Structure to design on (221 residues):
């Protein structure tokens, strides 16, 4: 498997199925900004909630090949092997990538377990062999990768222009980032010791930032 992060903002993603697995797919797609079309005669409560919020399109019917028209990604999440195969055939006929629940050999791509901390995302995959192991690893990471990493990601993103704008070589800029991202900075962010974080960063870049880091992060979400 080749790991990749897809930009699905505003792109149509079709989920065929109305159960728990389909609901999980829909939640992830909505969170990533995708447009979602659900195709299923019936939906569970979680799926109904998404439809009522107006965040998805629901076609209350059995799957037909034309339901994939305009799609960017396809998710087959029904409990019928026959329907799953029909979805795969229709997707491939349109040269679309398809993910098949409980059918790793039929998948063009796998959906990993994901831990999100702000803009930081950590994906854990097992090549479709055992999603339970990926879920276990994610739960373990949740205990050690806290919200301080969301702050760190926002912080580095906010001051990146300060460093990239310096009249030094790319190699020297890389060294500055390495010096800035020492392990202590994670502890300081966890404990909200903003003064220590600010003093450290200003010492690394060799000049004052000119404003408080908390303000800088809020201005650059």
């Amino acid at each position: 498997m080749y790991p990749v992060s897809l930009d699905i903002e505003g792109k149509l993603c079709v989920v065929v199925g109305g159960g728990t697995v389909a609901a999980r797919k829909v939640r992830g797609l909505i969170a990533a900004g995708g447009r979602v079309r659900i195709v299923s005669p019936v939906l569970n409560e979680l799926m109904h909630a998404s439809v009522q919020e107006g965040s998805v399109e629901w076609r209350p019917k059995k799957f037909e090949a034309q339901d994939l028209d305009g799609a960017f990604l396809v998710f087959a999440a029904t409990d019928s092997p026959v329907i799953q195969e029909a979805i795969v055939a229709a997707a491939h006929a349109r040269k679309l990538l398809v993910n098949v629940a409980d059918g790793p050999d039929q998948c063009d791509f796998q959906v990993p377990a994901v831990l999100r901390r702000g803009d930081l995302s950590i994906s854990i995959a097992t090549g479709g062999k055992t999603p339970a192991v990926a879920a276990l690893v994610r739960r373990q990471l949740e205990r050690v990768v806290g919200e301080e990493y969301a702050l760190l990601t926002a912080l580095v993103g906010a001051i990146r222009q300060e460093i990239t704008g310096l009249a030094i070589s790319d190699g020297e800029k890389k060294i500055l980032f390495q010096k800035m991202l020492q392990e202590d900075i994670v502890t300081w962010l966890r404990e909200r010791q903003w003064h220590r974080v600010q003093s450290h960063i200003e010492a690394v870049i060799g000049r004052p930032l000119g404003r408080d880091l908390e303000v800088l992060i809020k201005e650059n979400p």
